[in-house]
TrEMBL record:
<dbReference type="InterPro" id="IPR036865">
    <property type="entry name" value="CRAL-TRIO_dom_sf"/>
</dbReference>
<dbReference type="InterPro" id="IPR001251">
    <property type="entry name" value="CRAL-TRIO_dom"/>
</dbReference>
<feature type="domain" description="CRAL-TRIO">
    <location>
        <begin position="82"/>
        <end position="250"/>
    </location>
</feature>
<dbReference type="InterPro" id="IPR011074">
    <property type="entry name" value="CRAL/TRIO_N_dom"/>
</dbReference>
<dbReference type="Pfam" id="PF03765">
    <property type="entry name" value="CRAL_TRIO_N"/>
</dbReference>
<dbReference type="Pfam" id="PF00650">
    <property type="entry name" value="CRAL_TRIO"/>
</dbReference>
<protein>
    <recommendedName>
        <fullName>CRAL-TRIO domain-containing protein</fullName>
    </recommendedName>
</protein>
<dbReference type="InterPro" id="IPR036273">
    <property type="entry name" value="CRAL/TRIO_N_dom_sf"/>
</dbReference>
């Protein structure tokens, strides 16, 4: 269990045995029958400090109760056209499983625009994927592979990443902070592929600001990452943008059922139908309500704030250089 001692787990368990409703019920939704393993995740997120891990988990449970996270999978984004544009501008999908049984989530960082709906819809959608992963995907993987599987692999595609990404940093910070505080240690490894120069330059600056625990999880792969990823998964589980020899577009795929971002992909069909079904179970008579779920937006901690400001500064630096370069080209074209 790494840095976590059995004594720390026992102390943490004794503290959690004292919680009352409604925290007790939402804790059951979090641990899905594996309370000790869940305590380990929160302990790892706080470097084995029992008091800090306890506060973190209790704060997480309070956040879940206050924002009705236990019921978020019964709250579809409607109408269908709105759900489609959210999916088309927030690219994420399940491409398959690693040979160890970890779900492989593909994320189109570079081509996600987050500009077709309000922030609340994107946050709602992100949490719904998290909850579906934890309540449906991971339990099914555990059953299939015959052992407890509590985390996943993420492949981050940087195809199309531009300096305009500066405008998305606030939303991405909200999403990453929600994950850090409420879904810690859910990712085994982050594989970053199809990396443009702007990312490489910024990565050198921001990498030292990450916690060592996080840094060790990040692997920047050459090209589309196919050869490296085939060491841990079969070809059929590779995200569509990793199947070529070099880098490739992450949005377009000849067969939409192979494109794990597509609403026609089995993962999104199953997710959509599950949420729709849960909404009918919870409110079988009432019509589906339009409008996003407003989840409390957490503030990043001091370390996260420093990371964001440094990243913004670096992107702004390259944006200014890009602007200067464009001006020089214009002067040359005009014979100045």
């Amino acid at each position: 269990m790494g840095i976590v001692s059995q004594e720390a787990i026992s102390q943490f368990k004794a503290l959690m045995d004292q919680i009352d409703e409604p925290l007790k019920t939402t804790f059951q939704n979090v641990h899905q029958g594996y309370p000790a393993e869940t305590l380990v995740r929160f302990l790892k997120a706080r470097d084995g400090n029992v008091a800090k891990a306890h506060k973190m988990l209790v704060d997480c449970l309070k956040w879940r109760v206050q924002n009705e996270i236990d019921h978020i999978l019964a709250k579809p984004i409607v109408p269908n056209d709105l759900y489609r544009v959210v999916r088309d501008s927030q690219l994420i999908g399940l491409s398959g499983y690693s040979r160890e049984g970890h779900p492989v989530f593909a994320i189109g960082v570079g081509l996600s625009t987050f500009d077709q709906a309000s922030v609340h819809y994107y946050v709602q959608s992100h949490i719904q994927v998290n909850e579906y992963r934890d309540r449906v995907i991971l339990p099914a993987a555990s059953k299939k592979y015959g052992r407890h599987i509590s985390n996943c692999v993420k492949v981050l595609d940087m195809t199309g990443l531009k300096l305009s990404a500066l405008s998305q940093i606030k939303l991405l910070t909200i999403i990453s902070t929600i994950d850090d505080l409420n879904y810690p240690e859910k990712t085994v490894t982050y594989y970053i592929v199809n990396v443009p120069y702007v990312f490489s330059a910024c990565w050198k600056v921001v990498k030292p600001l990450l916690q060592e625990r996080t840094r060790k999880k990040v692997q920047v792969l050459p090209g589309c990452g196919r050869d490296e990823l085939l060491k841990i998964m079969d070809y059929s589980s590779l995200p569509h943008f990793c199947r070529g020899e070099g880098s490739g577009s992450s949005r377009n795929s000849g067969n939409q059922t192979d494109n794990c971002y597509s609403l026609d992909h089995p993962f999104h069909q199953q997710l959509y139908n599950y949420i729709k079904q849960q909404s009918l179970i919870r409110e079988p008579v009432a019509p589906l309500k339009q409008g996003s779920v407003h989840v409390e937006m957490p503030e990043p901690d001091a370390e996260g704030e420093k990371f964001v400001k440094t990243l913004e500064s670096e992107l702004q630096k390259y944006r200014n250089q890009d602007g200067l370069s464009g001006s020089m080209k214009a002067l040359k074209i005009n014979g100045v």
